[in-house]
């Protein structure tokens, strides 16, 4: 655990029976249930499963074996391709499915200029703004209690300058960003979301990790817009970033907000050519996973998580897909192959998350005051005495929780 004290807690747990008496000199079993640190992954591949439309039981088991945070897609163009007919019910069922299994859920994103609703483009700017505001309020309200964290707005650095008009109709979200400016676009998303759920957690998220993004963050915070975390995208189809990850955590951690590495991917095949500027421009018809690439991916993913979990500014790391089947840009980035078999990267991450960084079931004996000492990674724990079982939170640092075990 060397170097990870900032992820650990120690607790003197007092155990009581139903009458409030200490459970003195009793044998109990303590085990970890989940991490406080968010080990995330997109949950896109399990939406059909959660809705009973497909049987992805094996993939679901693999997903739940590793991750504690699911990201669900709210790209407006896919979520509401026909005006007035959003895919709310299916996404609610998917969010509920994850929540019932102890997984937190994040929505991605509320506002973005890409994969936006095409029907929005032809509308006048005042109507666009009204609908964007309403869209933010609707989603945050409809998913209150299911989704407690959102990428409020995505890729604002390029938003006003984005030009991609294959149908000749100017992009409505980019037009609005040019009209009101970047800072007020962020303010719009954040304030509309909090007008519905004041305690919702909101991120600014971007792939542009240049000084432009840092300046935008400074301007947003100076303008009094409250963010809960800074989102940093690190797709690595052209090679592992290595020590640059720690530099990014330092640079974006200086704002005093948690840093979330929101979108990470590493290929297990040939790397994308370094000459490609936009990752979307490289989508070969076949992009194979290879034994050499899979060994490299496993090594690099382990380094990725060790470095970021080891950095005190980082609160969350999300991987962009558990399976190669239907993976983003057709890239072999999954932890399992298209046929469902596990790659070495899956086993490597499981060894980290569920073994090295995990409190396995441990038998302890309470003292005369009914106390046991528990130390481990911060998160949720269960304690069992006979047939009685209860959960408690182990926060960072020292704590003294009291746990009732009726029937013990």
From TrEMBL:
UniProt enzyme class: hydrolase
Record carries keyword Cell inner membrane: no
EC number annotated for this UniProt entry: 3.2.1.8
Catalytic activity: Endohydrolysis of (1->4)-beta-D-xylosidic linkages in xylans
This protein's UniProt keywords: Carbohydrate metabolism, Glycosidase, Hydrolase, Polysaccharide degradation, Signal, Xylan degradation
One annotated GO biological process: xylan catabolic process
Entry-linked Pfam families: Glyco_hydro_10
Residue ranges annotated for the GH10 domain, each copy included: 53-352
SUPFAM superfamilies: (Trans)glycosidases
Keyword presence, Protein biosynthesis: no
Signal peptide residues on this chain, from the entry's feature table: none
InterPro entries for this protein: GH (IPR017853), GH10 (IPR044846), GH10_dom (IPR001000)
Lineage top rank: taxon: Bacteria
Gene Ontology MF term list: endo-1,4-beta-xylanase activity
Similarity comment: family membership: Belongs to the glycosyl hydrolase 10 (cellulase F) family.
Protein name listed in UniProt: Beta-xylanase
Protein species of origin: Microcella daejeonensis
Taxonomic lineage from the root: Bacteria, Bacillati, Actinomycetota, Actinomycetes, Micrococcales
